[in-house]
Amino acid sequence: MCMGLGCNAAGVVGCRIIDSPRERLLAILTNSLVPCNGRFPLIITLLTLFFGGGGNLWRQAGLLTLVVVFSVAMTLGSTWVLSRTVLRGEPSAFAMELPPYRRPQVGKVILRSRRAKAWLGSVRQVISPSPMEQTRAMPPGFRCFRRKP
């Protein structure tokens, strides 16, 4: 279900690792109820059309959150109903494999952060003069922002 928040197609493809065919089918069927990134513009458009776009921003954000929470609740509810009725069966055991936890070493963290800072500094040196070079390459009489007569 979490994979479906990014993209439902990736969520369905990610279901192939589930061992039980019953649980795989449950995950695939209910994955379409989770709103993916492709549906968010549509949800925002519908909320704007039906509940007004010029209103309070916090109200709009609350409504969007409510729609997402409602869809996740509907996904969990439909999974529960399907697993009790049509797709009855024995639930399989869940085992999650995690890599061993290693405590971070302070020296390596400092060294890598310094390397990243140096890299970002060199990127900044390359990127920051580029807008000035672009304006120098313009024809002599060209102005970026033209004044209205």
Summarize the structure.
By secondary structure, the protein is mainly alpha-helical.
- Fraction of residues in helices? 55-70%
Percent of sequence in beta strands: under 5%
| Form type | flat
Please compute the radius of gyration using only Cα atoms. 26 Å
- How many DSSP-defined strands? 0
Per DSSP, the total helix count is 7
Mean of pLDDT = 77
Distance between the termini: 58 Å
Q: H/E order of the elements?
A: HHHHHHH
Q: Determine the structural class based on helices, strands and strand pairing.
A: mainly alpha
Outline the fold blueprint.
Layout (H helix, E strand, L loop, with lengths): L1 H5 L1 H7 L6 H11 L8 H12 L5 H28 L21 H22 L2 H7 L13
Helix pairs in contact: 3-5, 4-5
Characterise this structure:
It is a single chain. The chain is mainly alpha-helical and 149 residues long. The protein has helices at residues 2-6, 8-14, 21-31, 40-51, 57-84, 106-127, 130-136. The chain is flat and about 60 Å long. The mean pLDDT is 77.
Features of this protein?
7 helices; 149 residues; mainly alpha
